[in-house]
Amino acid sequence: MRQVGAVQSWCLGVMLQLILAAALHQGFATVAPPTTAPHKDPGRPERGIYQVTNSNGTTCLLAYMGLQLNITFDSQNKTVQDVVNIQPNMTKSSGSCDSDTAFLNLTTDADKTSLIFNFTLNTTSKKYHLSEVSLSATWPDMKDPFSVRNTSLDYLRSTLGYSYRCRNEQTLFVAQNFSINTFEVQVQPFGVTGKQFGAAEECQLDEDDMLIPIVVGAALAGLVIIVLLAYLIGRKRSHAGYQTI
Q1: Is the pLDDT of residue 98 over 90?
Q2: 213 CB contacts (<8 Å, ≥6 apart)?
Q3: Are strands 163-166 and 200-202 parallel, antiparallel or unpaired?
Q4: Cα angle value 132/137/101 (rounded, 5°)
Q5: What percent of the chain is modeled with pLDDT above 70?
Q6: What is the C-alpha to C-alpha distance for residues 158 and 100, in angstroms, rounded to an integer?
Q7: CA separation for the pair 96, 105 (Å, rounded)
Q8: What is the spatial distance between Cα 158 and Cα 178, in angstroms, rounded to a whole number?
Q9: Is it the case that residue 8 has pLDDT exceeding 60?
Q10: What is the CATH number assigned to the segment(s) 36-202?
Q11: Which three-class secondary structure state does DSSP give residue 194?
Q12: What is the model's pTM?
């Protein structure tokens, strides 16, 4: 029975290592935290439904997401680190779609903000991604109008005819002084049929959330099987020791 106890201890150690590895994998897979501390927390943003129609009136881009802007800007006598939610009921969507590019422009008249997402499709691989983001804003407490643009991004990657979906919160880093938090995002800039999203391809963060219970369950199942086998082997040897010579 001492052998059985040793096997059980080894199995428990293996299971704990698997669980720890899965947890570490989840931690490393998340997007790096923002480099600036927020000035205030406006709470979780409301999800908005945005769409773009082409020249013949058909929908060519769909987006359903909550958006939060992290901006660092100069005020009159200090540097401000602000966090602002995009409010769907105060936001207008526009844009255009071509064979390999599509952009979504979100504008608000109240605070004079324009946020543009530009998507690019690789016609060879049939993969698309968010390749460019630009923001221009003129807020009352800004010393000068704020403007930033990054044309070399690689976010929200998916396949033509499919939508990209991520239930977890993500941070999209655009520049040192600007990033975007996305919440429960689903977007499809190409291959839209009617006004419906195509089948969703899940983001890595969501897949990692599903991976941990699978790893833990497999480890527990393996532990039960190994302990059972060790018990049967030990019992068989115990019986063999009582045989008469």
Answers
A1: yes
A2: none
A3: parallel
A4: 20
A5: 67
A6: 14
A7: 9
A8: 24
A9: no
A10: 2.40.160.110
A11: coil
A12: 0.70
